[in-house]
Amino acid sequence: MNIPFLDHWLKRHGADQEDQRAAAESDPERAAAIAELLSECELLRVRAERLGLELDDSPDSLAALDQLPPRWRDDPEELPWVGNDAGLYLGTVIVRTVPGAVWHIWPGGHPVVRLASGREISVVEAGLDWAVHGAPELAQVYAEAAEA
Fold first, then answer.
1. 23, exposed or middle or buried, with CB in 10 Å at 0-12, 13-18, 19+?
2. Considering the entire predicted model, what is its pTM?
3. Residues 72, 133: Cα–Cα separation, whole Å
4. Which terminal residue of the chain has fewer beta carbons within 10 Å of its beta carbon, N or C?
């Protein structure tokens, strides 16, 4: 999923897009700001809280999310937003707990998680698949990232 506000944020700091992305990854302040923006996942956090689940950015919270009843599937307008948030939350947990994992923004604003091995995980796609189909489970994607 394209996140246009991220491109706008990066543009305010000069240079061309590719230079901006590289700078964002190598500059700890920019990387922290991007990580903070991507970790909000407000809709998912509110839905989880209503069901008694606090999302604490831990791997255990991903397993708990996998166990929630998928009520968001009843609302076709909310479904993609929950999926997007689930992917960003998955990425947040990976970046915060897997050594060497970082956010990387592809041209066009598509966020992925880049592991220390160089492998990239399209977490938003994984979140959308989870929201729509229930698979792959978020905890499974996390486990594969933690092993890589």
1. middle
2. 0.83
3. 11
4. C
Phi-psi region of 41 (alpha: psi -120 to 50; beta: other; left: phi over 0): left
**Which pLDDT does position 13 carry in this prediction?**
47
**Token pair for 44:** 């998912």
Q: Tell me: the pLDDT tens digits for 122-141?
A: 999 999 999 999 999 999 99
* Res 15 pLDDT > 50: no
- The model's pLDDT over 46-62, given as tens digits with 9 standing for 90+, comes to 999 999 999 999 999 99
d(CA 59, CA 74): 27
| Residue ranges with strand state E in the chain | 102-105, 111-114, 120-121
- Rounded distance, CA 113 to CA 52, Å? 28
Amino acid at 137: E
Whole-angstrom Cα distance, residue 131 to residue 66? 10
Q: Which residues of 50-78 are buried (b: 16+ CB within 10 A; e: fewer)?
A: eeeeebeeebebbebbbeeeeebeeeeee
Position 122, amino acid: S
